[in-house]
Amino acid sequence: MEYHNPVLLKETVDGLDIKPDGVYVDVTFGGGGHSREIMRRLGPKGKLFAFDQDEDAQANIIKDDRFTLIPENFRFLKRYLRFYGIKEVDGVLGDFGVSSHQFDVAERGFSTRFDAGLDMRMNQKGAISAYNVVNEYDEQQLRKMFFEYGELKNGGALANTIVNARKENPIKSTDELKKVLGRFLPAHKSNKILAQIYQAIRIEVNEEIDVLKEFLEQTLEVLKPGGRLSVISYHSLEDRLVKRFIRNGMFEGEPERDMFGNFEVPFKAIGKLIVPTEEEIEINNRARSAKLRIAEKV
C-alpha cells in the first residue's frame, strides 16, 4: 500500500521532545511515517499508541512490542488510552487532513482528479457518505456547509443549483457533481474552487471540526505537565482552532484571570508557526498548505 512521505517529519517529531522511556500517541497513523520516526527515538521501555480509523492503514502496522495500533477515530483518544491502562502521556502528534494515499485511491472519492462514487468517508464503515450529503441535505444545510467549511462566498448559489439538479436525478458521482456545478468552475480557477467544494463536503461527512475540538480538549486531560502537543493543519479553519486552543485553552471567549490579572492558560506555545520549506513543497506538493504548531502543557 503506497503512502507518501509524511509532511514536516523531523520538525513534528522534534516538537515532541522525545524521552526514550516516554509514552507517546500518533493520532493519525496513516502510512506510519511519523510513528516510525518516533519509534526510532524511543528506548526499550518507551511506548507508542497510534490511532487510525481507515482500514487501509492496517497494512502499515509496525511489528514491535512497544507499538499498538488502535483502529478508531482519535475523537476517542482518552477512552482507548484508558482501555490500555494509560492515564497520562508525554506527547501527542496529529497530522490532520486527508492522506496522500486516500487522495490517490480513486474510488474513495477524495480527489478532484478522478471520477468516482460520492464517498469521502475516512472510516469506510461510516454511516454518512458524500452521496448522502449532496442528495439529502436541504438547501440551508448545504449553504451553511459550503460557506463555513469551504469558505465559499457563493455557497447559497451552489446549494440552490444542487437542490434543483437532484430533483431530476440523484447526483451519484464526482463527475456528475462537477457537471451540475460547471457554471461555477471557470477554467482559470476550477481546481481551486473544486478543492474548496470537496473540502466542505469531506469535512461534513467526517465531522472533522467536531472531531478536532473533541480531540484537543482531551489532550488537556491525557498530557502530563511538560507533555508536548505537535499538530499539523492544512486549512485555516483547523489552524484557527488549534491556534486559539493553544493560546487560550478554549475555542471561543477569553480564559479566566488569576488574582494578579494574568490569564490562566493550560499550554504555552513552543516556538513560532512552522511551515514547510520550498524544497519540501517541491518534493511533496501536499505540504504546501501545512502549518505546524507545537505546545507544552503547563
Describe this structure in words.
This protein has 298 residues and is an alpha/beta fold. It folds into two domains: 9-100 and 208-297, Vaccinia Virus protein VP39 (Rossmann fold), CATH 3.40.50; 106-206, Putative methyltransferase TM0872, insert domain (DNA polymerase, domain 1, Orthogonal Bundle). The chain is built from twelve helices and seven strands. Strand 1, helix 2 (33-41) and strand 2 form a beta-alpha-beta unit. Helix 6 packs antiparallel against helix 7 and helix 6 crosses helix 9 (190-206). The radius of gyration is 20 Å and the shape is globular. 39% of the residues are buried.
Structural class: alpha/beta
Instruction: Report the C-alpha radius of gyration, rounded.
Output: 20 Å
How much is the average pLDDT?
92
Strand residue content: 5-15%
Percent helix among the residues?
Answer: 25-40%
Q: What characteristic shape results from the CA principal axes?
A: globular
Protein traits:
298 residues; alpha/beta; Rossmann fold; DNA polymerase, domain 1; 39% helix
Which helices and strands appear, and what pairs or packs with what?
Blueprint: H1 9-14, E1 23-26, H2 33-41, E2 47-51, E3 67-70, H3 77-83, E4 89-95, H4 100-104, H5 130-136, H6 139-149, H7 155-166, H8 174-180, H9 190-206, H10 208-222, E5 223-233, H11 236-248, E6 267-269, H12 278-283, E7 291-297
Parallel strand pairs: 1-2, 1-4, 2-3, 4-5
Antiparallel strand pairs: 5-7, 6-7
